[in-house]
Design goal:
about 675 residues, ABC transporter transmembrane region fold, about 60% helix, Rossmann fold, single chain, 13 strands, elongated, 24 helices, four-stranded antiparallel beta sheet, alpha/beta
Amino acid sequence: MPKLEFVLNFSDVRSSRLFCTITRPSLPQSKSILRLPRVALWNTLRRNVVTVETKRASVKLKNASWKDLKAIFALAGPYKWRIMLGLSFLGISSSVFLLTPRVLGKLIDEFDDERRAKPGEEDLTLRLARFFKDNPIALVGVLFLGAAAIAARVYCMHTAGQLVINDLRKKVFNAVLRQDIAFFDKNKVGEIVSRLSTDALIVGYSVSMNLSDGARALLTCLGSGGLMVYTSPALCQVMVVVIPIIVGTFAVFGKLQRKYTLQMQEAVAGANQVATERLSSVRTVRMLVAERKEMAAYASKIFDIWQISRKEGLARGSMYGSFQFTGYIALSTVLYYGSNLISQGLLTYGDLSSFCLYAVFCASSLSSMSGFFIEIMKGLGASSRLFELRNTKPQIPLEGGIKKGNVEEAIRFERVAFAYPGRDPLFHNISFEIPAGRITAVVGSSGSGKSTIANLLLRLYDPIKGRIMIDDVDLKQVDPSYWRRQIGTVGQEPILFSTTLRENILYGAEHPEKITDAQIEEAATQSNAIGFIKTFPLGFDTMVGEQGSMLSGGQKQRIAIARALVTNPRILILDEATSALDATSEYLVRIALNRLLENSHQTVLIIAHRLSTIKHADQIVVLDKGSVAEHGSFDELMRLLGKRSLTEDALLFSYTLRMNLAQVSEFYLFCSFIFDGMSQI
């Protein structure tokens, strides 16, 4: 049957591209399959798939191996002189220890009168042997020189490796931090942290100490091999048989090692992700009594690591066992054959001793080279993930463009359509404007896209259709970093960092050193935070704990408001700033917000679910089912009631406006505040 080959991209079924080869008798029947709904199409394909083309990915990975290897060694480029110095010390130590067996062999022959060299047959190694025989302290000095060279080599390569690791971690971290928010929607933070910690360490080792060990093993192997040939060409014939076995072992187990390394990195990243996510949400885990469940989930991830590690250990053990077996067989054969040569007068005891030592050196070097090969495979496996992160280009650049920060006329959403990655469209055709210097409130039911408006305005995402205009400039043409510096944002769940109150308030300021203590106090006063800050013995220097765990929800929210105000932003976004607070905290935060809004000349966008937060708005935009249902002032929306048919959510909103629950809500909050205060007396 003929085969139809095509590429499918299911954004809501499978996140990756599947290269499918489907056997079908005719093209029309294949076309009829493509008319099915996505899920039905996926199920049909799953029953008819003959092969899923992973060959392209395999070829790409194979071709990328040498490219990645080159990229790994390129990381050591800035520290090449340090590495060259380490390799120079390697040359000194290797020369000392390669010459030692030859000299010791001559020393052995010197004690045998029958084998002692006759006058005129002396060579350099014999003269050195006689010198060391008469001056044993000199031999100790030479060996100490070799040991010192080893120590210097290890220091140079170790420090070079750590510098490479530091550079790689900084580059990858910087690259990750430059990614757009959609990148973090698709990638788990725990896995990224694993790349920065574990994978960077593996890659750094592969180009530092591992490179040094590999160079030492190669130099020792070549030197020992050459001296073995020089010592006894006849005995070298035995060693020739061993070489093909070792090369074949390298080829087989090297591929297995890289395969298991890739799997191991994925498994470790998955375990780190589970640990990071659960530990950061330990309060939720504790409240829901989910400790055993999470322990079991983490144990399952650890078991996956164990399964891969078991296979990796089996492969590595088989490889080392093969080397040991081959080595002992070769050494036993050398001793047997060498003894026959001695009995025939074709070899001396010293030469056999030297040859055996060189054979041991050569065998251990081959074993070290296998370790070097394994670590290189590990480095390739780890680097592919790191380089993927490092080379990923963000769809929204971090900076670059027109430095426009002041809104002179209005911010306009023009026929904007938007969908989060892998989800159905949230907006279809949104159009409204946010007048400069005015307060605009966006309201609607949960899931209507209120917070998405703020995300689009901050350019955390780009619309899939339409545009957002800042006066007469498209937001895509504006420098993103410069634009965001003009905006102060207070979210529903404020994020504080594990540092002092002062540093949290100053976080986000372009030049925090230029902001005075008086400005910090003014921002804390406007946010109604100065009261509880003064109750702390250390004041603004009080540590807030991880994610602000030492503060209450209302306190964190007021610190977030102070952080938004201290830079005096031209645009202020309040994204459901009181929706997650208790009555008392909400009352205190609302006092701060009302004080701010009444005296504000900024362009303000309020994202609200409760009507009590929007009574100061000059304009209210009602979102409903992916479009703007209504917009206008509070009074204008009241007059619209009954004049046109509204959706259920819009009717509920209008009814709530008529009841004027804003005043009722504030009265209730005030009473709750009084009663809470009285209950503590």
